[in-house]
Amino acid sequence: MRRIENLAAPERGLFAPDQSKLYLRPVGLAHGQSEPDGGDRESDRLLGGGPDRFQRVEVVLRSPKRIVAFSGLVDTLREWALGAGCQDEFDAAMFKLTRRRGQLTANAGEAPIVMGIVNVTDDSFSDGLDRRDPAIAVSHAHSLIAAGADIIDIGGESTRPGSKGISRAEEIDRVVPVIEKCAGFGIPISIDTSKAAVMEAALAAGASIINDVSALTGDPESLGFASRAKVPVILMHMRGAPRTMQDAPEYDCAPLDVFDYLENRLAACARVGIPSTNLVFDPGIGFGKDDTHNAAIMARIGLLHGLGAPIMAGVSRKSMIARLSRNEAPNDRLGGSLALGLAAVDQGARFLRVHDVAETKQALTLRQAVLDAL
What we know:
- The protein is α/β, with parallel strands linked by helices.
- The chain is about 35% helix and about 15% strand.
- It contains 12 helices and 14 strands.
- Helix 4 (about 135-145) links the parallel strand 7 and strand 8.
- It is globular and about 65 Å long.
């Protein structure tokens, strides 16, 4: 995988039309009462219409020969872009960074949105337990809501590395009874599936969000169904299928390749009438990626703001935590889960998909208290 070369300042001739692609990442974000990293307050830009603000951006340029990055104040780098012949690309990227986001975040306030995970499967990677009993799954969902979950994400098919798929009928039988019982709990429910029939059954049972690890590619009917359903959709990047996705995955540059893939899915959604205001993007940490890829993506997860929609980080209890730490079991990865989640929030991620809701909410509350004291 090619690395991104960090420059102290832009060089002449970096941008070549028809050869270079420009990406922007907001840096030095401020949230709440804290001040952004940059110039005076009048220069603030609102990331996605708020609540995060920024005055600086990182420019990343990819060409066949080099991938380079440099950062500075927005106005300063816009002047560079004018001289380098990429003002249109820069302005288009800035528009996507700052335009207002969609309905899922419109009424969410300033705090990141915490999605609690309910796996109705026989081989949950996080603890290895069989959770197919609807009563157990509903009880778990209720406990996550009591802990402060803003959304409950219910899934009936394991997508852990090496897992095998199940039929549509079996998946529906697993999730629908749980969704029906949880629909009256007073918070939105998302259905974690890649099958159109399961999406349809779940929405009929009371779900109101689609969360698809295949970004609406796993079923030829799913893109059309999502268009007709007119509900928010979370699109995740995954290289390959769960059963084989960890078989030596390769990237030119993982953060940029993930961006380009999701940009293509954004265009596919637009062609069938799904607006960006109904989308959320997840880079898919651990899905067809090794630890080098995962770390590089997390380091620049803020690049996905350039898609013009909110970012979700699903990093809870991921195996990369164990491999980069002390080989802890899934239930002992809380510290790493919180560290990765807060790192994503520091770059403006608005959604965290987690197993440990109470601990995540506590971490977010303390983070904000410290920021507000600046």
